[in-house]
Target: Amino acid permease
Amino acid sequence: MEKKTQKLERTMTSRHIMMMALGGAIGAGLFKGSSNAIDLAGPSVLIAYLIGGIILLFIMQGLAEMAVKNSEARTFRDLVQSVLGPYAAYFLDWIYWKMWVLNIAAEAVVAATFLQYWLPGMPVWVLALFVALVITSVNLLSVKSFAETEYWLALIKITVIVVFIIAGFILLFFSFGSHTAVGFSHLTDHGGFFPNGAGGLVTAMLVVIYSYGGTEIIGVTLAETKNPEKVVPKAVRGTLTRIIAFYILPFYIIVSLIPWNQVNQVSESPFVMVFKLIGIPGADHVMNAVILLAIISSMNSGLYGSSRILYTQAADGRVPKIFSKLSGRKVPVYAILLCTSFLYLGVLFSIFAGSQAFEYLMGSLGYTVLMIWLVIAFAHLKSRKRNQTAPGGYYVKWFPYTTWLAILALLAILIGVIWTTSIAITLVTAGIYLLITIAYLVKGRKLA
Model:
């Protein structure tokens, strides 16, 4: 019988969770979703990512403040439940779990397609199975081993993006050989900075929010982080500046070097297109490898986040206790295995949905990130109301203005997304939220 005293070990440092947040956010949303965002908004995609980055900053500041005030919290469900009540916490837990298991299912197929670049004769399901087994093995190791793996995967991605930024600026502002510096001309030469108007900017916000989603995984690491009340604020400060830089600067280079209306006309990632302009031999292979690592890194973070949500649900008696069982390495082995099963469901789903699986799921995942951020923001707003004096240690300086600004911006984006998104995606997402609510009314409320 499982002992109630079994607990996760606090072995993760700010270095680990900072890179994990980057690993979750700098994935397929950046490398695969970039073409979609540029096609929707044109050069104004830079404004979209800046707005998204500012909103993310305000949300994560609130999360950090709540973590400082509640150092015993295991995940952000504990932070939310103490201020918004059991339903909000239950809803947040399950939509976050749903987000990650759907995301790893979609990205398993995407990772397989990038492996197929080198192994064209190998079936997608075989390659997806291989990726799934690798991800499962890494997560079944100790949490420190997992964190170290994620750290180095994220570091590789960041190094390549830094090289991309430096080389891109050289191409933009210096002429050499047959290359002529283009400067800022492509930002306005093809229909202006807002070629699709304000509507294009609003529509692109769904891709933007999806792309930034994953950063809030910091809130799931609380039970395995040393001194979370000190580490989380430090990680939030360091992570946000890097995410905004690693999105806005690369997008600025892409839309400045390549006319925005040509980005989506070829099957290549815009990152590959720019590396070819730089003249690096085998640029397509280099970027294919980097994108593959980026997706695996994001899946790694996703499996971690979803399994820890399931673990805390089991520890509290909301799902079968077996999912709270820890291995000798202090990882929730059965929770990991259940969440991993969605990787294999992703393989089956790809048989029917084909290459459209990622695009279809991205819409639902974008909705979910919006809802998660809104719940965190409302929780932060109410947490400070319960104690009007500024808390000790870390606190948000311009409260409540930053939090209200984030809430109003997210609600505006939500309305715009509902107006412009496929009705099928909206209905499927609403149906999932309704099922979660019914489950709470039937069972979850009794356990609150």
